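Batch manifest line 723
LIGAND: glutamic acid
JOB: complex structure
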Amino acid sequence: MKPNKSLLVLLFSIISLFAKADEGMWLPQLLGKLNESRMKSLGMKISAEDIYSINKGSLKDAVVSFGGFCTGELISSKGLVLTNHHCGFDAIQNHSTLEHNYIRDGFWAPTNADEIPNKGLYATFIVRIDDVSKEALEGITTGLTEAQRMSVIEKNMEKIKVNAKKEPTQDAFVRGFFEGNQYYLFVTETYRDVRLVGAPPSAIGNFGKDTDNWMWPRHTGDFSMFRIYASKDNKPAVYSTDNIPYTPKKSLSISLDGIAENDFTMVFGFPGRTTEYLPGVAVEQIRSVNDPAKIAIRDKALAVIDRYMRKDEAIKIKYAAKYASIQNAYKKWQGEIQGLTRTNAVDKKKTYEAEFQKRVLANAAWKESYGNLLTDLDAAYASFKPFGLARDYYTEIINKIELNAIAMNLNSLVTAYTRNGEAGYQDKLKTVKPAIAAVLEEYDATVDRSVFESLAEMYVTDQPKAYVSPVLLQWLDASDNSYAALGGKLYSQQGLYTQSNLDAILAKPATEAVDAIKAFDALKLFSDIQQTFQKNVLATLTPMQEKINQLQRTYTRAQMEVMTDKKFYPDANSTLRVTYGKVAGYTARDAVKYEYFTDMDGLMEKYKPGDYEFDVPAKLLTLYKNKDYGRYGKNGVMPVCFIATNHTTGGNSGSPALDAYGNLIGLNFDRVWEGTMSDINYDPSICRNIMVDIRYVLFIVDKFAGATRLVDEMKIVHPKKGK
Ligand code: ARG
Ligand code: GLU
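JOB STATUS: finished
ARTIFACT:
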């Protein structure tokens, strides 16, 4: 019998649905059970136990959560940590002045004593991960509301945390996985004396800036180095001159043998957040409603800030980190829309859902519990849509206006005073003062006023009136509908945003300070904006969100039960994960095919003398001209970056890229633009992570910066040469 063609097509499309090679962010303690054989078939030469073990030093002991927002890895037995330039950027910026401009010129501590402490920066190790699903879900019955369920689970989690076996220097927390279907306990150890050791100039560490960000081909040396310091007995300690370099249980060996296409790679780190199990209806909302709205708002804010940064060097330093972070997601969302559209992600989800539904209906028990799930999800997301959009408007706009942050901080003092009198006020002051100081450090009233004027107009004109603050509308009316006049009025009360004036107010007795604070217009305005949001958006949105959470949890569980031919991994939630794949180029679009690595010839093709983004430091030009690459280049070629199929996301910045033996070969720092939709729907055809080749990192440290003392600390290996 000849196979029916449409049946073949259907079969093929089902197979390709499940054959998503290498997708997934896996829990390190489950690799042995779920992934080891696949990893070995891709070329891995070590065992799951070498990656995660509670009995011996394993690779996980060389990986840290860097400040809670990035990943870092130990690359010497003296506590040396490698992470991205953009992860160390805030620290580098904080130590920079017009005279010592480390952002522009780079920084290299000549000795340990010159390494600079960083307030608030920490590095967290994962000691152990335990499955505590049973204990966490104890007492959960089907009749509970979301709020009741959460309250039971929170109590359970607290109990698990308190009873967790751990050393006095260790911490514990419990986190939910698979939308709250499973729970894991993490025992951690956090070191809080983390010092800046070195960073290349921005023209290397952030070469190509926003034009190249999220792009391939890439030529950025996106790295910086820190060192963990510990007490004399190698335990966590707050900063002290008595602290000594930390001796890790494990540090990574570094391979200088280079990378070839199809080589096995894995990335070990702390991915922040993904949503891979959404139904098509939710993906379509992200693609056509939420992403476009957020992009439009950021477009306005960026244009304003950029205008000021380009003409004033001091503003450029102050706003550098803020600008980069606003720009970063702005550009990512654009890639996400493109990728989702180009790969027909929504249609693929719908095909998958049709298969799910078919299987559910064919089984009486499933039909009973899951038969209506997809239609319920459709309905829930449809009613959520306008409120979700309003929430995006509120958060995107309000977070860009620093005056709001100042006003809200001051407002919390008034609230504390009203509730608990003088004592409440004084207590609150302890957190409010540093919070305001942190805002002011990176604040310019002229820039902020322009941002306000521009975004306030969007807030008013682009939204249904019900979501707009009545006070803002009144004041706008009183300002003859001029946003400039409104901005002028709001930003005329100088007392609000200079450190000295604020200090003077906060030094007064509570009653007087509260009176002074209440007199600020900004407080009235931003409080009303917040209250309007709470009353007219959040009050409706919150129960809707709870309903969605509950449906998503059931849907996730149902998928795991019904779609047994698919391998499930939990969405990223800032916990330690391993992702693996192979070094590979990709076809970005029709007739555009990308190679898997870049080198310094390509960097020089981008070089534009004097340019804001593409200038190259003189010393690097000389090294290039003389092909002076030391042991890091090969046959006159200096590799810079490479790509692979590892499934990564934000938070994986600074993650080590490891070879088949677990040696460090690169430093993860980005993804390709076409593939940023991997947060929602990984597609092996175009999703690639971008790493800087470790040979380029060491070339910069050694040949460019002359920081040989650091290279001397490292353990260099040559696995391909059998050494
Ligand atoms: N896109 C990378 C990430 O998501 C790098 C961001 C920093 N670089 C920049 N030009 N903004 O974090
Ligand atoms: N640059 C990102 C970060 O800061 C990593 C790139 C990504 O999102 O994959 O974590």
